[in-house]
Amino acid sequence: MGQGVTAGRRDGALLVVGDVVTDVVARHRGPLAAGTDTAAVIRTLPGGAGANVACWAAHAGCADVRLLGRVGADAAAWHERELVASGVRPRLVVDPEAATGTVVCLVDTGASAERTFLTDSGASLRLEPGDWSDTLLDGVARLHLSGYLLFTEPSRALAEVALAAARARGVPVSLDPASAGFLAELGVTRFLAFAQALDVLLPSRDEACLLTGLSDAADAAAKLSRLVPLVVAKAGAEGALVARSGAVAARVPAAAAVARDTTGAGDAFTGAFLAALVAGADAREAAARGCRAGAEAVGRVGGRPPRPAGAG
C-alpha cells in the first residue's frame, strides 16, 4: 500500500509522466451520418492526458511543472513549443521509428457535448525504462503518472521504475486511470496491483465503479480508499468525491459551466487538484479547485487551458 504521504513539499515541482499526442477535434451536431458526409468544425490541437494535466497544473499556478513524454520526429518541435508556451518544462524523447500519437475526438455539439475518441497511441506509449533517470525527481514535490502508461508493456515498465524511484525518495505519487475502455482490457486485478503503491488515485466515476464492481460512485470511492490513502472520484456535473480510510470524507459540488467540449475536463481537474496540493491545500479545497478548472475546460474546445498572457 502507498505510504500515505500526501502532503508533498510545498516548495517543489510537479513532475508528470505521460502521453503527448496530437488531437484532431471534429465538432458535429447530432448523430454521424454513416456512409456519407457529416458537417463538422475540425481543428488540430496539442493534447494527451499527461501533457494536458501538466498544462492545467501550470495554468492553476504551479510554478514548476515538468513533463516526461515521447513523441515522433514529425511533431516534436511543435509539441515542445506548445508546452513551453503553456508554462511547462518538457523533456520529450523523440522516437526513432513511431510517429506522434494522434487522437481523433468526435464531439457532439448538442447539449451533452459528449465525445468519442479514436486513438492511435503512436510514440506516446513507447516510453520505456531507458527514458527514465532518477535525476528527474530532483526538486520534485509530487510525481503524477498518466494511467495510459499502464496499457502497453514498455510504458508500464517505465511507470513501475518511476513509482519505485519516487517511493525510495518519499515523493508522493498520483495516478489517473485515464480510460475505462483500456482499463477493462488491462484487467482490474493488474491495475489494482499497481495502484496499491500509490498515494493518490483520481478515477472518473465510471472508472471507480469498474475497479470495484460497485454501481454507486460514493461506495466505489470509499472502497478504493481502503487500498489507496486518498481517492478523489471525478463525477463531472455532479462534482467530486473525496474518500479516505474506507469512507467518503467530502462531497464537492461542480462549478457552473456551459459545455462546448468535454475533452480534457478530467485532465483539467487533475492538473488543478495537484497544483493545489503542491501549494499546501487540503484535499477538499484541492478538489474544489479541480472542479473549477473542469468547468473552465468544458467551455473551451480542446484539452488545454488558455495560454498565459504574452506567450507565443
TrEMBL record:
Transmembrane segments: none annotated. Pfam families: PfkB. InterPro entries: Carboh/pur_kinase_PfkB_CS, PfkB_dom, Ribokinase-like. The keyword Kinase applies. Residues 14-308 form the Carbohydrate kinase PfkB domain. One of its GO terms (molecular function) is kinase activity. Keywords: Kinase, Transferase. This is Sugar kinase.
